[in-house]
């Protein structure tokens, strides 16, 4: 990627607070959140084009075939992708673009040698993570167990990231990430 802001990849397991952290960070001057694409159904209150671009599987697969994503993966039976053109436009007009993706997506970007700053959000512990996952609305114990198993395997990947932050206190977590972004911008002369 050429001139413009930096791409900040924010990963972490389901329920760790990526959305809450990103909502606070985008209040900072020049930080925006990339809107990714998914085939999953919207959760209560989510809006197409604001929270995600919601597509059916056929339309999503068509965009994959056309090379429209920086990365894409299947997670929990749904497809997710990072739209290439939209993210590049955001990056050119901002200081930092937050891309909330899972460890699979981050690995695909690494293998594609995408210029990015990677930050892994870690929960304060397994019990707290299980509580957060259950609080997301899944009442099915099998789905909660699946999400917890997936979360633990994602946490095992945290050492591949430039930075790892424990999201125990939201405000402290946001301050740490904001400081990391600012330091990266300074190191790049921006």
In words, what does this structure look like?
By secondary structure, the protein is an alpha/beta fold. Strand 5 and strand 6 form a beta hairpin. It has one domain (6-187): 3-Layer(aba) Sandwich (Rossmann fold), CATH 3.40.50. The protein contains 7 helices and 9 strands, in the order βαβββαββαβαβααβα. The two termini are 15 Å apart.
Summary tags:
41% helix, Rossmann fold, 190 residues, globular, alpha/beta, four-stranded mixed β-sheet, single chain, five-stranded parallel β-sheet
* String of helices and strands: EHEEEHEEHEHEHHEH
Annotation, overall tally of beta strands:
9
The low-confidence parts are none
- Summarize the amount of helix as a percent range: 40-55%
Number of helices: 7
Largest sheet: 5 strands, parallel
CATH fold group: Rossmann fold
| Share in β-strands | 15-25%
CATH homologous superfamily - what is it? Answer: P-loop containing nucleotide triphosphate hydrolases
Q: How many structural domains can be distinguished in the coordinates?
A: 1
Average pLDDT number? 90
The radius of gyration computed from the alpha-carbon positions, rounded to a whole number of angstroms, is 16 Å
Structural class: alpha/beta
């Amino acid at each position: 990627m050429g001139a413009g802001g930096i791409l900040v990849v924010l990963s972490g397991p389901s329920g760790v607070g990526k959305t809450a952290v990103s909502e606070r960070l985008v209040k900072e001057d020049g930080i925006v959140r990339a809107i990714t694409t998914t085939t999953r159904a919207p959760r209560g209150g989510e809006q197409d084009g604001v929270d995600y671009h919601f597509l059916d599987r056929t339309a999503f697969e068509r965009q994959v075939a056309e090379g429209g994503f920086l990365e894409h993966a299947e997670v929990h039976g749904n497809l997710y992708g990072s739209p290439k053109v939209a993210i590049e436009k955001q990056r050119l007009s901002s200081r930092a673009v937050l891309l909330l993706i899972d460890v699979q997506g981050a690995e695909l970007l690494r293998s594609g040698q995408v210029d990015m700053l990677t930050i892994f959000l870690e929960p304060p512990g397994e019990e707290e993570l299980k509580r957060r996952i259950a609080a997301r609305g899944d009442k099915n114990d099998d789905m909660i167990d699946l999400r917890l198993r997936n979360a633990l395997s994602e946490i095992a990947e945290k050492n591949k990231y430039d930075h790892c932050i424990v999201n125990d206190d939201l405000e402290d977590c946001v301050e740490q990430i904001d400081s990391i972004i600012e330091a990266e911008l300074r190191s790049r002369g921006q």
